[in-house]
Specification:
Number of domains: 2
Strand order of the largest sheet: 2-4-3-7-8-9
Radius of gyration: 25 Å
Largest sheet: 6 strands, mixed
Helix content: 25-40%
Low-confidence stretches: none
Number of helices: 9
Shape: globular
Oligomer: single chain
């Protein structure tokens, strides 16, 4: 028997194959025959899957590249080539994801009376409520961090929403500050429902990003914010445990706390961000253009919601069947004592 050769002709690459599965998930969101809220749900699932793919799979490949590791895999593809192919495929797929969100899903939802407001969608009637909500709920939990020699670049948590702001003028201490970072706490929801008396309906929600961008200058008294750009960094979140660890619980605790600040593997930023700000962030996170994703839409789709009481915009409710043997008044435990019963979930119940 001839020796079996390791090559891309005989083996699928694990990471490339897994991403092809993620593309098939996104394909469900592209299907116009599905209910609109289910399409949005598939879009959210794809975003969450992609986050994990970067945290584990891409992070592992980048770690091999950083260590100049030459681990041989059955497909015989070099790590650098895998990362390049993944980057090209993911960039194209993410662009498709936001294209269908912007031009298909959001317009159809709006036609059905469900609206997600972004910064460019704000109307005069929204501004008074936004100002009051920002002052009461948002501003007290925001901590602006100036970027200057006395304030180094902060450690930003994995997948957290952040804003980088370009500034003009001097602060209260007379210092000239050109840029600042504002992290958005996880305690704040991604979407906030606007009251019905403001919008005329009860299904309008506004992105937290829009609220903060509308009032970003309030965080810098005496200064003028000339730009405010949302971004998010994804980090290596893989757990690495030694086989000869003495206390597994302690080791897990240490790994879980450190994974929030692992090596950066992806930078997502609004596509209208100036190149100098993009270059600055790439340098701080030690990333290249290959790991940069310019987003034409809201950052972090994984935190969107489909919890609307609109059953006509979802799959029809499915009710499982109760097998005949369980429809009797007899106790289920007495039935199981007498015989086994095979159920097919989720189609059968008991």
């Amino acid at each position: 028997m001839e020796q079996f050769q390791h090559s891309s002709a005989t083996y699928f690459n694990r990471e490339l194959s897994l991403f092809e599965f993620q593309r098939r998930v996104l394909a469900q969101a592209l299907d116009p025959n599905l209910p609109i809220l289910e399409r949005l749900n598939f879009l959210i699932i794809f975003s969450r899957n992609l986050d994990e793919f970067f945290e584990i799979r891409i992070a592992g490949l980048m770690k091999q590249q950083d260590l100049n590791a030459t681990t041989r895999t059955p497909d015989a593809l070099p790590t650098e080539l895998i990362l390049q192919e993944l980057s090209q495929s993911i960039h194209a797929t993410v662009n498709k994801q936001y294209e269908v969100l912007k031009h298909a899903i959001l317009p159809e939802l709006q036609a059905q009376g469900i609206q997600f407001l972004q910064y460019q969608d704000l109307l005069e009637k929204h501004k008074a409520w936004i100002a009051a909500f920002f002052a009461k709920e948002v501003q007290p939990v925001l901590t602006p961090i100036s970027l200057d020699p006395s304030h180094p670049f902060p450690r930003l948590v994995n997948k957290s929403l952040n804003f980088i702001i370009s500034l003009e003028g001097k602060d209260a201490f007379g210092r000239e500050i050109e840029m600042a970072i504002v992290p958005a706490p996880r305690s704040l929801p991604c979407l906030i429902k606007i009251p019905e008396d403001v919008t005329g309906n009860n299904t309008t929600q506004i992105f937290l990003t829009a609220i903060i961008q509308q009032h970003i200058s309030d965080l810098f008294p005496g200064m003028k914010a000339t730009g405010c750009y949302a971004f998010r960094v994804t980090r290596n979140a893989d757990l690495v445990l030694s086989e000869d660890v003495d206390d597994l619980a302690v080791a897990l605790k240490d790994e879980l706390s450190s994974r929030r600040f692992g090596r950066a593997v992806r930078l997502e930023i609004e596509n209208d961000s100036p190149q100098n700000i993009i270059d600055y962030l790439l340098d701080e996170f030690d990333l290249t253009e290959q790991e940069l994703y310019r987003i034409d839409g809201p950052i972090n789709l994984s935190r969107l919601s489909t919890s609307f009481e609109r059953p006509e915009l979802k799959y029809p409710h499915f009710s499982p069947v109760i097998p005949k043997i369980f429809r009797k008044q007899k106790s289920i435990f007495e039935i199981l004592k007498a015989q086994d019963v095979l159920l097919h979930h989720p189609f059968d119940s008991f």
